[in-house]
Structure formats: structure tokens, C-alpha cells
Structure prediction request, 334 residues.
Amino acid sequence: MSENHTEKEPQHTEINVRLLDNQTLDRCPSCKGEYIDRIGSLPTVYRFLDKKHCLPVNRGDLVRCRNCGLLFRNPCLSLDAMNKLYETYYSESTWEGDGDGRNDFRKIADFICSMDITDPRILDIGCYTGSLMHFLRSSCPCGDRFQLFGIEPSRKAAAVAEKRGVKIIGRYLWDIDYVTAEKFDVIIMTDVFEHILESNRMMQTLAGALLRKGCIIITTGAYDSIPFRMARNKYYYAVAPEHVSFLTKEHAMWLAQTNGFSMDYVLIRHNLKKQSTFKMAVISLVSLVLNLFPSQMFGINLPVSGKFAELKGRGIQNICNYPDHVMAVFRRVL
Prediction:
């Protein structure tokens, strides 16, 4: 019986995508402001993470809140619908990384090593298989004394993280509210902010789990980076249907001031590896041509246009060789 249930999980995920309607937001999900500017439609994509679906997933527009500066997807799948998609997902290649290729890992490790904290308690939100925690432990001089904790929705990924010495304390960010006994020196969110609509609620939750001199480290795609601003709603980071929020310095400052933090905002490259400039230039040119056509021609869906929109954004990033991510560090104002 359990084997049959496991085999039907992908079909169950497909049904969720098909039946659960996107939620149209008339207010900003973070500050609840009413003034929302539409930037443009996001390309049609037929996948969630790298799992293909027969219908468009999380189709919507890229919009901006004039009050707090947050950019977000609207309309958007509900949190429950997306959680169901995350729960059944596991891949050995997605969200993995090491110090040789992940510049954000190195930046985080350098920052933590510079902190004057003995035996820090570190929580990684969305730790996946614990690759970042493993890198911190192996690259920092006192890494063997780090106390490592994680939150991860994928049961398979969480099991791998536990084998790497990460104590899993919950499946979702909001589980922190119920783990009142645990407090941390450092809370890390690497490539997680973009998956969460309610960023102010997120910051309030993290603040409640932080020790007095602790800090929050967030790395994510930055809309105010040059590549992102050039491609706007066609940038690869915004095209991904699992990405629903996009950080700006304006919004990071708003989060800091609203929740009693000081904040450092530094643009970084996500990866150290640079792809072939010629290859990405050709992809960018093809994607520009495809974007001139509607998502349907002669009654036939063209999901490839969404894929090329993603590659166009990557092409802009690689050709320009500019950073498109940010590392934002929030410290309590004592």
C-alpha cells in the first residue's frame, strides 16, 4: 500500500497545481500597503523547480509595492499549495553547492569566522541537505565547535542533512514560533527569501529566535542589481515559478527599521563560475526573438519561451559579469 502511495505522489502534486487557483493580492503581503505598480507579465513556465507539469505553474505578473519597496509575484499560489510541491521534491543536484563554486557560501563563512562568538548556535532556514552547514564546519577554524540546526520541508533532504550533523528542528519557517526553547547566534537564509511572500512576518519570526547579540544573514537575488534591472520581468530569477518575492535595498532597509535592526547590504555574485560569453550571447539573442511572440501560436503552447527567458537573464548576468545577488546582514539595535 505504501509503495503505491509513493508512486502516485507526482500525480497528487499535479492535481494540486491544477485545482488550486492563484491568489490575487490587492495589498502588499509584507507591509499591507495598497499602492502596487505592475512591472510586467512573467513568462509562462510549465514546471516547479525542475519537475515538469502539463499546465502553467504559478503564472502571474511582477509587481512592486510603492510603500516598502518589495517586488513580488501577483497573483500567486497559496503557501499551502507551494508547500505541497516542496514536500515531495528531492534532487541531488538542486540547491547543492560547495566552496569551489558558491561565492555566497564563502561570503557567509568569512562573516561568521569574523564574529566574536564562541561555539555559535547557527540555524539554516531551508538547509536542504546541509551543504552550507557542512561547508561552514569544514572551512571555519573552529567549525568543529559549531552547533548546527536546520529547518527543511523535504523529508529526504532533511535526512541527508541530519547525517551531516545538522539537527532538524522543523519543516517550515513558521515552526520557529513553536520551538520556544531554541535561540540562535546566527540565522541564515540562503536562497530562501525569494520563496516567501510575507517578509515582515518572516523577520518578526526570526527576530524572536535570535539571541541578544545575534544576527540574520539573507542572501537572495537583488532586483536593484544591474542584470536584474536590465531584464526586469524577463530575468531568470523572476521567471522561476517557485520565486515569489524579490529583495531591494529599499525593502531591506524597511524591514530593518520596522523590526529594530541595523543592516548591511552588499551585492555579490552567487556563483564563482562564469559560463561561455559566446554561448550566452546566442541564447540571449534567440530569447529576445522568442519574446516577440505570444505564449500561444496557432493554438499551440510554447513553454520553451519561458525557458529561454530564464536563459536570457543568465546571459545578461554572464555577459556583463555583474553581481546579481545580495548578502544582507541584520543586527539588533541594542
